[in-house]
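Hey team,

Sharing the GTP-binding protein run so nobody has to redo it. Sequence (596 residues) first:
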Amino acid sequence: MNLDNSGSSSPYEGDEHIESRVSNHIFHVEAAHGVPIVTSQGNFVAEQINSLLSEAVEEWPSQASEGISAEEAREFAVISAIGVKGCGKTTFFNHLFGTHLQVSSPLKRSEQEKGTKGAMMAVGQLSGSRHLLLIDTEGTDGRTSQAANNKRLERIVTLTVAVSDVILYHVWLADLGRFEAAGYGVFYTVLGEHLKIFQRDHPSKTLILFVVHDHDDGSTLEHLKKLILTDMEHIWDNVEKPNDYKTAKLSEFFDIQVVSLPHPRYRREEYEGSVAAIRDRFLGHFRRSEDYFLKREYSKELPLESFATYAEVVWSELTRSDAESGSHVISSGIPSQRELLATYQCDLSYETQLQNAMEKCQRWQNDTSRGKLIDKFGHKASSLYTEAMDNYDTSTAPYSSFQVRAQKRHSLGNLLQNQLKSLFQKQIALLQQQGLNKFKDMLLSAVAANGSISEYDQHVAMRRVDDWFIKKAEELVVPSLRLHYRLYRLEMQNALNETASKFRDSPTVQMQAMQKLEKLASRPPPKQRGVVVGVGLNAAIRPSGYGNLQMLASYNKGPHSLNVSLVNDRDVAQQEGQSDIALFRIQPTLHFDIDI
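Structure output:
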């Protein structure tokens, strides 16, 4: 098979056969054709990564893959391919992992046939292995001399160094030992930038896997590895190193492995066997072997959720450094991988704990706005603060040596304290208002009952309100945040004293006093209880006549009375046959008036 001379499809008639064999090992491949993460213009596309990883995670099975634990099933490894253009790296990626990335064709000029531009990513998983993030990069071209393009390619290489567990470097057998043809200049970037990124942490190793194409001359693999190691040691000796690493060895930071492939067209079966053998070394059942390619010591320990963030920060720093320096040398200003990871994890924990706490605080705020006191606020506030800080400490414990952890903790603590202090003050203010209203009601009740209020009654009312305030305020105290009510109690007492001093002369009190006087004045006088004895005299004078003269006179003094009547009807009475009518008659009476 003539690698990378095929345009979008390989001329090797056995490609479908190779892919069918790969499918027996591939558990799942997401976006097999790849999505751009760095465009040909040098723009980083974080949205593509987030979208791709989100879709992949949703489709990955919840159970652990065969041969690995459930915890390992959530982990991933990053494998990147770099090399010169036309070296077969993309075709090998497709054959090895079952992707369908665009294959370049040096003999054709169509933009669609020039292979990978920038950097492409696919996500997959081989049976029994961790999930894989596969990054295919644009190949270097010795014929290209554009400074901007070279900078962009250097940035892409540096990005792969920052994120990759394994870097696949492709080279033709005929180019071994030929510095320019093999594209070895890129290793000054690979080796140098690794030191800049990881030097501030414990050394993090990366596996550089050389894939030698068209190995058909009968030489041994050990011989090829010796040649490659010699070249790598020479480059390492000439890489600019920090002072602490002047005498460091290449093997402290990199493992160099070499695999080879025979010609795919003329030695088809051997080629397929070599691809299968290399694939096996990525499989989970190989993980206890020294030949396993995905050893944990190569992992950059990036959480899946922070991968896009970390990669974007690295790319932004590289772009900024290039713009400021104006040279091809990649700036050493890239934050260390663990610094960025610590920042991400501390930010994540900070946001999580703050959001959870603020949701509870908002509910309390709503209740307070409606004039409601939070039951046992002090205990609840103390528990909320302690729980949030403890959860932050636990989740960020691996990053205790980083300043960002303490900074975020301080910020989280301040925000929570300020929020809880605000709620405490609003609760206290509400309590003070309720106490003042209660005191006024007690004074008004006393005035309504008595028409006035004495200083003693005011003092008793103040004591009762003060006791009530203390009882309620005790439930608001948060000792761990130094939230106490002593000063607020003094404010309350001063407000009660001021209210009491003004209350006697207030229009309200005067109105109440006047209303009571009016009510008393409108009452009838009280009746005297006892027994009253009265004497009455009734006198009648009846001279002769026919009733044409009538007179009546009466006199009362206390319970005594005198009644005298004069009527000249004596003749009329005799004519009617009445007996003799006396000229003058008197009739005494005696009456008793008893009031109980």
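The chain has 17 helices and eleven strands.

Ping me if you want the raw files.
A.
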